[in-house]
Design goal:
Layout (H helix, E strand, L loop, with lengths): L7 E4 L5 E6 L2 E6 L4 E7 L1 E4 L4 E6 L2 E6 L4 E7 L1 E3 L8 E6 L2 E6 L4 E4 L1
Antiparallel strand pairs: 1-2, 2-3, 3-4, 5-6, 6-7, 7-8, 9-10, 10-11, 11-12
Length: 110
């Protein structure tokens, strides 16, 4: 059972996770109420079975379902899985493009 300390709780398509909001900041908790992503982001979007999109102060990044940061929250934009394969996504930072490969968790400058 999730603690009632949050202003809002939303369920994603995956019933194991909930987006929580407290004082206009978002976080992610599992179905036991354990924090997966701290309640410190402007927005959180569940994007796949294993990746979560994070936005903080107009910078973007990603974490996995364990809450580990896999793409630091420092990029200007993340294109939604339009890399050279369906197993990657494009990251933008200061007019440069990078490709994040999900299987190896590598970030490659393009």
């Amino acid at each position: 059972i999730i603690n009632y300390k949050y202003d809002d709780i939303n369920n994603y398509d995956n019933p194991l996770f909930y987006k929580v909001t407290d004082n206009h900041k978002c976080g992610l908790v599992d179905s036991y109420g354990n924090i997966v992503a701290d309640v410190s982001y402007n927005e959180i979007n569940y994007v796949s079975e294993s990746e979560i999109y994070l936005i903080s102060d107009e910078k973007k990044g990603m974490c996995n379902i364990d809450g580990d940061i896999i793409v630091p929250v420092e990029y200007d934009d993340i294109w939604n899985f339009y890399g050279t394969s369906w197993h990657s996504t494009i990251l933008c930072l200061d007019n440069s493009e990078f490709e994040f490969i999900f299987s190896t968790q590598q970030i490659i400058h393009k």
